Amino acid sequence: MTTFETIITEQRGRVGIITLNRPKALNALNSQLMAEVVSAAQAYDTDPSVGAIVITGSERAFAAGADIKEMSEKTYVDMLSEDFFSAWGHLVEVRTPVIAAVAGFALGGGCELAMMCDIIIAAENAVFGQPEINLGVIPGIGGSQRLTRAIGKAKAMDMVLTGRRMKVEEAERAGLVSRVVPTESYLDDAIAVATTISELSLPITILAKQAVNRSQEVSLAEGILFERRVFHSTFATDDQTEGMAAFVEKRDANFSHR
Ligand code: CAA
What we know:
The protein is of the alpha/beta class. 44% of the residues lie in helices and 16% in strands. Helix 5 (143-151) packs antiparallel against helix 6 and helix 9 (202-214) runs antiparallel to helix 10 (220-234).
C-alpha cells in the first residue's frame, strides 16, 4: 500500500482499516484526504486478502465535515471545473463491504462519508448532522439524498434545514446507524463485524451488497427481479455448493475468498 499523509492504513486478518488522520482539523475532509481514502479503498477492493474494509476516525471526531478552510476561497467556477467532491463517487463503487466505525462528530461530509459506507457502527458518543446550512451552502456529498433515503423526509428535512445535531440514540431509532456500541470498544466492535463478513465468501458478499444497494435505485418489481436473478447466479459458484454441503454435513463451511 502507498504511503499516505492524511490517513493510516492497516490490515488485521482479512480486514483492511482506513483511519482518517487529520486530528488538528477534526479529520476535516480535504481534497488530499478524499484522494487518499479513495485510493486506499480501491487498493483493498482489488486485494483478494481483504474481505471487508473499515473506515474510522478518532474517538473525538469521525470527521467534522468537508474542509471549510480549503473551500472558503473557492469560486463557483472553481467548484464546477474541479467537479468538487465528485471523486467520492469512486468510494461507493468499491464492491467489498465497507463499515464505518463512527465516534464523536460525524458532521456534514463526515455524516455523508458514513452514509457512503454499507454498515455504520456508532459509538455512544457519536453525533450526526448536516450543518451546511449554517455556512450558506447545502450538503454536497449526498447528504440531502442518502439521509432522506435512510431516515425519511420528515427528519432529513429537519436536519438539513436547521443544521441541528442528532445524538446516537435518535440516529439508531431513525435508522441511520446499524448498531450502537460502547465508546471504549467501538473500533474493536466494528472490526469484529468486518471480520465476520470477511470470513464469508467474498464473491457472495459482493453480490449481497449489490442486491441491497439496488433497492435504493429501482422499483420494487425491478429490485425483486434483480435479486432473484442474482440469487440464481449464486448456484454457479463453488461457494453455494460448499455452503449447502457444509450445512447438510453439520460442519463449518470453507468458503473461497476469490
Ligand atoms: N473544516 C476545517 N477545519 C475544521 C472543520 C472543518 N469542517 N471542523 C473543525 N475544524 C478545525 C477548527 O477550525 C479547529 O482548527 P483551529 O484549531 O486551527 O482553529 C479545529 O478543527 C478544532 O475545531 P474547534 O476548535 O471548532 O473544536 P470544537 O470542539 O470547539 O468544535 C465542532 C467542534 C462542533 C465539530 C466544530 O469544529 C464545527 O462546527 N466544525 C464544522 C462543522 C461543519 O460545519 N461541518 C460541515 C462542513 S461543510 C460540508 O461538509 C459540506 C458538504 O456537504 C460536504
